[in-house]
Design brief:
The strands form three sheets. The protein has a six-stranded mixed β-sheet, with helices on one face. The chain has a six-stranded mixed β-sheet with strand order 7-8-9-10-13-14. It has nine helices and 14 strands. The longest helix has 15 residues, at 189-203. It is α/β, with parallel strands linked by helices and 255 residues long. The protein has one domain (3-253): Metallo-beta-lactamase, Chain A. Helices cover 34% and strands 25% of the residues. It starts with a strand and ends with a helix. It has helices spanning 36-45, 59-62, 65-72, 148-159, 174-184, 189-203, 213-219, 228-233, 241-253, and strands spanning 3-10, 14-21, 26-30, 51-53, 75-79, 91-93, 98-101, 104-110, 119-123, 128-132, 135-136, 139-140, 166-169, 211-212. It binds zinc ion (ZN) and fe (iii) ion (FE).
């Protein structure tokens, strides 16, 4: 395993991830809703924090940054497009940029829609994608700032990643997302099986993230808007993929 990844729950339902390049011991954290649980985990493992990767500007992803920087001196990385409303950035990035964590390369993906300037961090070699509130386990973020077309374009960027990629998203919303997904494809065996698995995990208090992209592609209605089965289920056989996505997203908003 070239990367070691640790999931830290924060606030009521946020997830933060520590990523460690095993060869060099270099460590990053993805998002910082609050500093205390992150500092405690770093201390318990005797890890030095080098980088703070920000996905987007919402408070539940950045409020702990200042304290974390003071305590660790870590460098802050975030979207150039969001620089005016993120904590001070040491590195301002855009979609397509490539960065290094120790010996590991990672790529910035522009995944705007939930917010404009939302980015994801893709570790191709480690098969790990840190997606914040863009693609989420069995769901996607609400479209607050972008357009439905923009968010659908973002969903398509995830289609282009290898199916073996693990998706590390920003919240534990999966049980509720399961209920919604089943309203779109109630008879799909893959969804029914996944719903059982999620129920069992939550009953044991386990995290439902990360999740493999392959499973997301098979079950996540927001990724499946272009699928004929989904279009038929919604009576939208003649609609464009983006229109179907918009319909699913607005149904979820009112769910
Ligand atoms: Zn958000
Ligand atoms: Fe959030």
């Amino acid at each position: 395993m070239p990367l070691e990844i640790v999931t830290i729950p924060c606030l009521s339902d946020n997830y933060v991830y520590l990523i460690r390049d095993v060869e060099t011991g270099t460590v990053a954290v993805v998002d910082a809703p609050e500093a205390a649980p992150i500092l405690a985990e770093l201390q318990a493992r005797d890890w030095q924090l080098d980088q703070i990767l920000l996905t987007h500007h919402h408070y539940d992803h950045i409020d702990g940054v200042e304290e974390l920087v003071k305590a660790t001196g870590a460098k802050v990385i975030g979207a150039k497009a969001d620089a005016h409303r993120l904590p001070p950035l040491d590195t301002a990035v855009s979609g397509g940029d490539r960065l290094q964590l120790g010996n590991m390369n990672y790529e910035v993906l522009d995944v705007s829609g939930h917010t404009i300037g939302h980015v994801a961090y893709i570790f191709h070699k480690g098969l790990a994608a840190f997606t914040g509130d863009s693609l989420m386990a069995w769901g996607c973020g609400r479209v607050f700032e972008g357009t439905m077309d923009m968010m659908w374009e973002t969903m398509q960027k995830f289609h282009a990643l290898p199916r073996a990629m693990d998706i590390y998203s920003g919240h534990e919303y999966t049980a509720n997302n399961a209920k919604f997904a089943l309203t779109i494809e109630p008879d799909n065996e893959s969804l029914l099986q996944r719903a059982q698995a999620v129920k069992a995990e939550r009953a044991k208090g386990e995290f439902t993230v990360p999740v493999g992209l392959g499973l997301e592609l098979a079950t996540n209605p927001f990724l499946r808007a272009g699928h004929i089965k989904v279009k038929t289920a919604l009576g939208m056989e003649d609609a464009t993929d983006a229109e179907v996505f918009a319909e699913i997203r607005s149904r979820k908003d009112n769910f």
